[in-house]
Amino acid sequence: MTGPKTSVDRLGRLLNLVPYLLARPGILVSEAAADQGVSEKQLREDLELLWVCGLPGYGPGDLIDMALDGDRVTISHDAGIDRPLRLTQDEALALVVALRMLAETPGTGTRDVIERALAKIENAAGDLADAPVAVKLPANAEKLDRIRAAVEGGHALEITYYTAARDETTSRIIDPMRVLMVGGRAYLEAWCRRAEATRMFRVDRIDAFAALPERSSPPPSARPQDVTEGVFRPTPDLPLVTMRVGRHSRWITEYYPVEEVRRDGPGEEWVVTMRVTDLGWAQRLLLGLGPDVTVVGPPELLDRIRAQAAAALDQYSSPAR
């Protein structure tokens, strides 16, 4: 059975299809489909999509045009897709800076490939590649290098780790699995013997670590986490926090994963619901936002915030010693 596996496969085929058809005017659809490794039905769907592709403006002369006469197809206007891609100065500089940063990021396993791509872009960019742009890594780059070396050594680690959700620092023994970058932050993924589960440890929150004599040995049940959509993956079993958010605190809907955002009446307040791993973390976050946020639920969180607010007021009412 033939056919595309992913949208990436289809994109690559569409990009190749125009120059292929330009070189073979009047080719049979069945023959073109066989050459492309797809069914005739799929090729006709690709041709229909090409009909609405082209250059910005999307008017006459901007879109790809073709003649589909029964079983034969001919490209009559290629909309410039047969010409090689030319990067603008801004695009070339952005690629150079991004690749330089990637090449300097510890833990990148394809550094040689990145450097070859960077060399090609810099060569094509000419003098632009020498623009005075500084590429600076985060301050914990040296720590990340040392952690990566420790992980590659294959030993279990004892770490001192700060957990922001519970505002506590703990010591634990872990079996490292990999070092990775997610959302611009470095993480050490490992089997935590204390939690008896796979955990993601932010490198900047590892206060200290030491390699142990024993080898790292994650159990067979330890599996790398899918981080394509981020490190935090809300699940239905986590506490659901509901709050009314004023205009100046709406940024939390972009900074944190939220389940729902809706307007609350004619005013500027939004009703926001979000899952959290720990109510203590939510308590500190919401108290820090001040009067611009009103907590609706759950009741346990409301009680905790009231108690902490009352304790703070008591401090003001107590005479100074």
Automatic annotation (TrEMBL):
What name appears for this protein in its UniProt entry? Protein pafC
Q: Where is the WCX domain?
A: 247-313
InterPro entries according to UniProt: CBASS_pafABC_assoc_protein, PafC-like, PafC_HTH, WCX_dom, WYL_dom
Chain intervals for the UniProt region annotation (Disordered): 212-233
Residue ranges annotated for the PafC HTH domain, each copy included: 9-122
Natural source organism: Paractinoplanes durhamensis
Instruction: Tell me the first and last residues of the signal peptide.
Output: none
Q: Where is the WYL domain?
A: 143-208
